[in-house]
Amino acid sequence: MNTDITALEKPQYPVVDRNPPFTKVVGNFSVLDYLRFSTITGVSVTVGYLSGIKPGIKGPSMVTGGLIGLMGGFMYAYQNSAGRLMGFFPNEGEVAASHQKRGGSFN
């Protein structure tokens, strides 16, 4: 079974890790990824609360909306982080960090 997701499209930026593991992707979350993650979660909690006012189920609706937002926000942050490592999104910081770790110079 072919699990190579880069087979259909070639990366436009330097590749740091062609197939990054879960821990590396989560460890590579940027401040912007965490901001997007928390914003999506917060908006989902608010929408869940507001949608539960009329039927009188504010609490359960808010929790459900929050869980959906939590999962969606995490997946969005994960997608962006993995995309930077695999070279599909701009990744100047990741490339510089990988060159520093290897001891190479980066111009």
Automatic annotation (TrEMBL):
InterPro entries according to UniProt: NADH-Q_oxidrdct_subunit, NADH-UbQ_OxRdtase_su21_N
Domain of life: Eukaryota
Residue ranges of domain NADH-ubiquinone oxidoreductase 21kDa subunit N-terminal in the record: 11-89
PANTHER family for the chain: GENOME ASSEMBLY, CHROMOSOME: A03, OXIDOREDUCTASE 21 KDA SUBUNIT, PUTATIVE (AFU_ORTHOLOGUE AFUA_4G04750)-RELATED
Entry protein name: NADH-ubiquinone oxidoreductase 21kDa subunit N-terminal domain-containing protein
